[in-house]
């Protein structure tokens, strides 16, 4: 009897279908990109569904999804791996990027511009015809598994000269642009995810639309779909709509009293 085959990416497989409602042709376009293992940028505002989208696509394609939340303290070793001490001495341990490259996962670097540019440069050889990952400390050249794909995301609204993708990096990717769904679709998503009625969800979406009109006029970002879901969850648990929205939207978005008052006005217009 054959021994079971060990799956190094078993922990990264998504067993249950993630809920996702397409807003356009993004599902078909992603499938075309994956067919050619094309590296992809997903760009759009915070909480608009980029991560849920890539989770859904990984599930539908039957591929494990290795996700890393990028930050300015992340080093190249956090991506590719390092030597660590164990009971038998020093041993090499693959990082999450290397695991995905070796074994055919989709590697998703969330908010990639938060990482230092001297860190993300290690992905360059994976994003052209070479599809290789040099492990300099180990003296190994890893050739990407045929099923490997690299996906990164960022929020264009938070870009600055200090946090931007280098042109030499950006031009290695195709890109899909995301935004918040239209009102009816966003209400459907909020109702499903929060477990509330469609009428309540529509009121929450109306608040979000008003807040998004204040972007760059006092707010860096308006209320996200994620925030609406949080508010819906609290309301479902019998927290008053005013307190739920104050906690998940107003206080989370701003410290400015005038902006907070404006947001509270949007809530009162819907819930009284």
Question: Superfamily at the CATH H level of the largest domain?
Answer: P-loop containing nucleotide triphosphate hydrolases
Number of helical segments with 4 or more residues: 11
Radius of gyration: 21 Å
Inertia-based shape: elongated
CATH topology of the largest domain: Rossmann fold
Uncertain ranges: none
**β-strand amount:** 15-25%
Strand order of the largest sheet: 2-5-8-1-9
Overall description:
The chain has two domains: about 10-175, Rossmann fold; about 185-270. It contains eleven helices and nine strands. About 40% of the residues lie in helices and about 15% in strands. The longest helix is centred in the C-terminal third of the chain and has 15 residues, at about 200-210. It has about 270 residues and is of the alpha/beta class. The strands form three sheets. Strands 2-5-8-1-9 form a five-stranded parallel sheet. It has a two-stranded antiparallel ribbon with strand order 3-4. Strands 6-7 form a two-stranded antiparallel ribbon. It is elongated and about 65 Å long. The protein has helices spanning about 25-35, 50-60, 75-80, 95-105, 115-120, 165-170, 185-195, 200-210, 225-235, 240-255, 255-270, and strands spanning about 40-45, 65-70, 80-85, 90-95, 105-110, 130-135, 140-145, 150-155, 175.
């Amino acid at each position: 009897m054959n021994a079971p085959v060990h799956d190094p990416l078993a922990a990264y497989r998504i067993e249950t279908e993630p809920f996702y409602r397409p807003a356009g042709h993004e599902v078909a376009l992603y499938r075309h990109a994956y067919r050619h293992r094309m590296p992809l940028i997903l760009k759009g505002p915070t909480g608009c569904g980029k991560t849920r989208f890539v989770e859904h696509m990984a599930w539908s394609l039957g591929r494990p999804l290795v996700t890393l939340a990028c930050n300015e303290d992340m080093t190249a070793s956090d991506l590719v791996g390092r030597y660590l001490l164990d009971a038998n001495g020093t041993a090499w341990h693959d990082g999450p990027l290397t695991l995905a490259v070796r074994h055919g996962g989709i590697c998703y670097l969330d908010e990639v511009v938060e990482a230092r540019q001297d860190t993300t440069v290690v992905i360059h050889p994976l994003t052209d015809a070479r599809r290789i990952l040099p492990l300099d400390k180990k003296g190994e050249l890893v050739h990407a598994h045929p099923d490997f794909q690299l996906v990164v995301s960022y929020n264009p609204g938070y870009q600055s000269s200090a946090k931007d993708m280098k042109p030499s990096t950006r031009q290695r990717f195709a890109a899909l642009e995301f935004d918040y769904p239209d009102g009816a679709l966003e209400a459907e998503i909020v109702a499903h995810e929060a477990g509330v009625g469609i009428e309540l969800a529509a009121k929450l979406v109306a608040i979000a639309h008003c807040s998004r009109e204040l972007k760059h006029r006092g707010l860096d970002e308006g209320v996200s779909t994620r925030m609406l879901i949080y508010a819906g969850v609290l309301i479902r648990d019998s927290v008053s709509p005013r307190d739920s929205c104050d906690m998940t939207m107003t206080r989370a978005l701003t410290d400015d009293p005038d902006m907070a008052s404006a947001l509270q006005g949007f809530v009162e217009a819907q819930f009284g």
